[in-house]
Design goal:
Helix content: 40-55%
Number of helices: 17
Largest sheet: 6 strands, antiparallel, barrel
Radius of gyration: 29 Å
Strand content: 15-25%
Distance between the termini: 54 Å
């Protein structure tokens, strides 16, 4: 049984002496010849085990001691072997520990660290009705049609590249964004429905389907953990990839529809198609626990692939930095590079998202700056946690404490030096607004750093959308006395609306030519600052000015 288990539970010696399975544990025989034995704990935990361990699990009924179990099981079992196997079952929380089994809520479930699931339905009976449709879609003809539609959608976006850039690089009406968000949520629901339908088609039992708050964001889920009981690798891979296939087909259909839609509808279809394609691509990435990873793990038939590769990567890093001797959890040559990629990729994703959205969030003032600061803290937390785990592996591997201390001290010193001496460009993001009389004004949130705004300071003007920003001109600050005012939401976010005015501070600008857009993004460049001063001025100080 190869798994990272939860912290061990103390079991009384008398219960270990005559062990029995916990009340929520069951043993499943192979579905067909060559398929694995599976031990199930609760509704969602599955352990693929060797036949000998499965036989032992079936025999532990609380009436036999270790000698009795060895006698009934026969060779190669011995009393010592039984004791070792019983300890393995105990570590997996599969044995009765004398406590009442906790029954999880039927409709609401909390999944650490920050996910709450609300069950809407038990979909097994419903999904069985779609088995003929799934059989058609998973046939060669259905698969070929799906691939063709997804590729045709990409060609449709490529053929209208200027329109794609325009849709992604200019403000859109609020109604368009709401429609895109609604479409994305609906696609997510169909995505999860696809997982469950394919699992049901192959004879599995989808557990629950519903909505959830995933890190406080709404999403959908379908419990397909029963897929691990499917006997064939290709079936488990099909279940894992069913959602992505659904996504790219929907994205392709939207992209094709954009060729024939009117302009105001076309922009929304393009944004929706691009977002859905990118979401499918990210979902295919095997370095985080998404569908692509589950498909890879199923194809390789290596349970807990990522956790084991991460352990090997940490031990490799510990050996390079601190020395020591370590055991490999995976023998494959690619396991360490894969584990290193798993360590780095989540940080890359967060850093990329912050780079894409940091300026937009900063224009929202203290609230936006605080969100970015939380992202930075998240990055730092994971870096520190990763270092702690590497140090823990080093101590387990016998590395010398002096070397560990010296390397950690050096790492802290390098980080401190980078915060103090490395210089980065510093700027303040805001917006601009052309008043009815033609006066162009720089608009800043009240919490923005206004100390950098001085008369004759150069301000760059941009047109910005959800993903693309284009410089449209420059202006010069005409006076360094700010005026309290209000500005529409479109000044701070790429939304085409005059509604939702927010408090702001305005400065008059002088331009050689009135901007074509009435509102847009403005950036005040203010030289360079050290990384530490940059972080403080950009994301910490605005909270104090709130």
């Amino acid at each position: 049984m190869s798994s990272k288990t939860a912290p061990p539970v103390e079991i009384a010696p008398e219960l270990l002496a005559r062990p029995r399975l916990a009340a929520d544990v069951s043993v499943h025989e192979p579905a067909e010849e060559g398929a694995p034995w599976v031990i199930q704990r609760g509704q969602h935990k599955y352990f693929r085990v060797q036949p000998d361990l499965a036989r032992l699990a079936l025999a532990v009924n609380g009436t036999r001691d270790h000698a009795g179990l060895a006698d009934i099981l026969g060779p190669p079992w011995t009393v010592e072997a039984v004791g070792t196997a019983v300890d393995t079952l105990a570590e997996g929380r599969l044995l009765d520990n004398g406590e009442r089994v906790r029954q999880h809520g039927r409709w609401v479930k909390f999944v650490p660290p920050l996910t709450v699931q609300f069950t809407v339905l038990r979909p097994e009976r419903l999904l069985r009705r779609f088995s003929p449709l799934v059989r058609l879609l998973t046939s060669r003809a259905g698969g070929a049609a799906a691939v063709a539609l997804a590729l045709c959608g990409l060609l449709a976006l490529a053929s209208q590249a200027p329109q794609v850039r325009m849709a992604l690089g200019q403000p859109l009406p609020l109604s368009t964004y709401l429609a895109v968000v609604g479409g994305v949520l609906a696609t997510t629901a169909v995505h999860e429905f696809g997982h469950g339908a394919v699992l049901s088609h192959h004879g599995g039992r989808p557990g629950r389907m519903g909505v959830m708050l995933f890190y406080m964001s709404p999403a959908f889920f379908c419990d397909v953990s029963d897929g691990w009981r499917l006997p064939r690798r290709q079936q488990r891979v099909a279940v894992a990839l069913a959602g992505i296939a659904t996504q790219v087909v929907i994205a392709g259909a939207a992209a094709m529809a954009s060729l024939f839609a009117e302009a105001h509808v076309r922009d929304g279809l393009i944004v929706f198609a691009v977002v859905t394609y990118i979401s499918g691509l990210l979902n295919l990435t095997p370095f985080v626990k998404l569908d692509g990873y589950i498909a890879l793990m199923s194809h390789l038939d290596i349970p807990h692939l990522r956790d084991r590769a991460l352990d090997d990567a940490r031990r490799f890093t510990a050996r390079i930095l601190f020395g020591g001797r370590y055991e490999r959890r995976l023998p494959q040559r690619w396991a360490i590079p894969f584990g290193l990629a798993c360590m780095a990729f989540p940080l890359y994703m967060v850093a990329t998202a912050m780079r894409l959205w940091a300026d937009s969030l900063q224009r929202l003032g203290a609230f936006g700056a605080s969100l970015v600061l939380c992202g930075i803290c998240y990055l730092v937390y994971h870096l520190v946690r990763g270092l702690v785990r590497v140090v823990r592996e080093a101590r387990t591997g016998g590395a010398h404490a002096l070397r560990i201390g010296a390397v950690v001290t050096l790492a802290v010193a390098v980080a401190g030096a980078a915060l103090t001496f490395v210089k980065v460009p510093y700027s303040v993001s805001g917006g601009y607004l052309v008043r009815d009389g033609g006066q162009v004004e720089l608009i800043l949130a009240p919490s923005a750093d206004q100390s950098v705004v001085r008369e004759n300071t150069t301000v760059r003007l941009y047109r910005a959308g959800v993903a693309v920003r284009t410089e449209t001109g420059q202006a010069v600050v005409a006076g360094d006395d700010g005026t309290d005012t209000t500005a529409p939401l479109s000044v701070f976010l790429p939304v085409r609306t005059d509604a939702l005015p927010a408090p702001a501070v305005s400065y008059p600008l002088t331009t050689s030519k009135t901007p074509d857009d009435r509102v847009g993004v403005a950036q005040v460049d203010a030289g360079t600052r050290s990384v530490g001063a940059w972080l403080y001025a950009r994301y910490v100080a605005p909270a104090w000015r709130w």
